[in-house]
Amino acid sequence: MNLRFLQVTTLFFALAPLSKTFAQSLTALKTEYLVNPIGLDNPSPRFTWQMNDTSQGAKQTAYRILLDTDSASLVKANAKLWNTGWVKSDNNLVIYSGHPLKPFTKYFWRVDIADGGQKKSNKTYIASFETGIMKMQNWQGAWISDTENTQLKPAPYFRKTFTANKKIRSARAYIAAAGLYELSINGKKIGNHRMDPMYTRFDRRTLYVTYDVTNAISQGKNAIGVLLGNGWYNHQSTAVWYFDRAPWRNRPAFCLDLRITYEDGTTETIKSGKEWKTALSPIIFNSIYTAEHYDARLEKAGWNMPNFDDTAWKNVIYRSAPSKNIVAQAMHPIRNVEEIASKSLRKFNDTTYVFDLGRNISGVSKITVSGPAGTVIKLKHGERLYANGHVDISNIDAHYRPTDDTDPFQTDILILNGKREQSFMPHFNYKGFQYVEVSSSAPIELKKENLLGYFMHSDVPVMGDVKSSEPIINKIYYATNNSYLSNLFGYPTDCPQREKNGWTGDAQIAIETGLYGFDGITIYEKWLADHRDEQQPNGVLPSIIPTDGWGYEWGNGPDWTSTIAIIPWNVYLFYGDKKLLADCYENIRRYVNHINETYPTGLTTWGLGDWIPVKSKSPVELTSTCYYYADVVILAKAAKILGKNDDYEKYTAQAKKIKDAFNAKYLNKEKGIYHTGTQTEMSVPLYWKIVPEESIALVAENLAKRVEADNFHLDVGLLGTKAILNALSENGYNDIAYKVAAQKTYPSWGWWMENGATTLYENWPIDAKSDISMNHIMFGEIGAWLYKSPGGIKPDETQPGFKHVILDPHIMEGLNSFEASHIGPYGKIVSAWKRINNGIRYDITIPANSTATINLPLTRGMDNYINGKLNNTGKIDLVAGKYVIEHKAGK
């Protein structure tokens, strides 16, 4: 059935509820987008919540927030530190403005709301947060290390004993590191994080993490243990990015304050200093880029226990802090999120085995094995196999430049101690892999159960889902999410094996895919702070962030480093929070001004262009100028939002200048064709809305014709991939967009799936000779497109954060049903449709305290029924609630 969407007059619509009205309640109370966080530095934290009310038209009309250090006083609504009083507002994002917050303090906050009937919540909702160090002068510990020797390979242990003579009320450990660490108390690892602290430009900003260690400490004698890893700080592996020459490079170091509060109200801080002892650990080598080597014969049993004899250990040395800016790591941490059993095992002989996890992941493997002392076991991790069944890493070690053979790529090395069956999992490394080839210097017996995989990534909550009647679409969506998460490690990366670099172009392409699917604001706020750390005074940003200095001369430009504008803008659209936009405003302005000064005509040739295209190559000037235009448009909008009216006028005029110059050079207005009319050349201007209003229809028509001439297959690179499906769908060619999206032959996403992919690849041909990582997110816009086009869920920039939801679901030839859901700041949005005998049924959910506008088809001989009532209006405003809408043959 060919269903057309028509523009008609808006009509307000509200109906009686489908089901029984429930009393409103509150949920998802968060501080700084985290649930009951500890260790915050922000003196003005943000509070958010959601109204949980399924009744039709449910909305908040007022709120009240109370804050105190005593939760009992909040129950009585008797807050001493902050009481907003009743504020008539439907806001569910409020910034703290009470008495100044103190460090090392736990605060409780309560929120009450009134609904549309002025009924106030009758239950008390209380959440908490805890401040951390807050100011540099509050640190008591010293920065310590074991040596200044950056070439020393083994990872160091550190330990200290102390006695807690009184009953403990609470205890917090604050630890900052140059490198990576694992913290333990009395023999037990603290927390379930991996790879802390997150990677930053170490000499400009260092992160610390806070742990609640109350239950780890005993009254009496205790021991603290710290194991340090290199991470990106002391990069010893040699590759083309030169991280081994980083200006900050040194032997890892750390600073720790363990603050104990006793029952009598007194406090004591156990801190890092000269009284600590150090020794080398069994981790004889660790590289975040390659692997980890572990000699179990060197284990020091009980090294982090109180009664361990450390008389043979060495004294520590003092070190200066890596930076003068040590701040809280307030974000979702990296974890071992999913344990994956081996799917199969192939035994070549009694010293060689290959395990297959059945899917490509980022993370680590864990082997459990026994054998004679001194047996050397190598675990080689890769994404594919040679024809003979052995692991092939030739597609992912392309940029590695080893100086010898002691540090094999993605190959952990374990030396057994012969004492018992032992397990090994790397501490300070992760890899990209599906297969693990285990080879040993002596015979060992392995079964499939002896090796597990752990999918590691920033543990961001899932916020979206897509379900389709077409299996290939479901596989593409699954693979897209796998690649997105595989490339989220406190910053967005390009691939988890060959580079692990924060390539800006990949991240700007995937921003919407990430925000529809996951709660990533804490990661992006951290990464944009990395941008601000890296930006040169003239506005230039590097192509990889963070960086040691590589990338200022190659790979950057508007098509890549537009992250500085595109990501804050999308966070604003998805969360309705302008903080990141405000934090980055001057950086965006400086960046835009640099381009304007360097390219005064309005056209810029700065950039990489449409990276890794199928066959057609587009001018860099065409694509980069479109991104430059997008940056200036975002800057103008941000200026208006932030009340900078002079800048708004200035950059609005600058955007027009760019648009006019671009179209004068590249648009054949009579024919409606940009340049030579390739898919990228047509779709990128459409997507970034630089096409003159009067030419949009003809350009879109010609794009559709070009795609049809290309047999509904892709002929784009990275930048074209971002644009192509959206440019078609947004301009009336939904069926053509779907044909491209659901293709199963080369070149297409489906072609990868048909050939066994569980992640997205870096290149369209699976037998390419270069650029053939099998876990890249750079072609991942299709994930967002599924939400926006067949799902039809879009934020409204005039009411961001899905305060008002734009619903424009597209019924596509070849699909029988589709469902998209997204949990926005107000709750869960659902847009689902399926074909029924005589038409289409839609199931829509709009969360409380938000509204929506839906575009419905108007077709001759068909009627629209909303919750059973006839309504033949194409564009309809909906209040919060659940709706069943049927588009079916008229009676």
From TrEMBL:
EC number: 3.2.1.40
GO MF terms held by the record: alpha-L-rhamnosidase activity
UniProt domain Alpha-L-rhamnosidase concanavalin-like: residue ranges: 347-457
Signal peptide range in chain numbering: 1-23
Enzyme class: hydrolase
Sequence ranges assigned to domain Alpha-L-rhamnosidase C-terminal in this UniProt record: 792-861
Keyword Hydrolase: yes
Entries under InterPro entries matching the protein: 6-hairpin_glycosidase_sf, 6hp_glycosidase-like_sf, Alpha_rhamnosid, Bac_rhamnosid6H, Bac_rhamnosid_C, Bac_rhamnosid_N, Galactose-bd-like_sf, Ig-like_fold
ATP-binding keyword on record: no
GO biological process: carbohydrate metabolic process
Gene3D superfamilies the record matches: 1.50.10.10, Galactose-binding domain-like, Immunoglobulins, Maltose phosphorylase, domain 3
Protein's name in the database: alpha-L-rhamnosidase
Biological source species: Pedobacter zeae
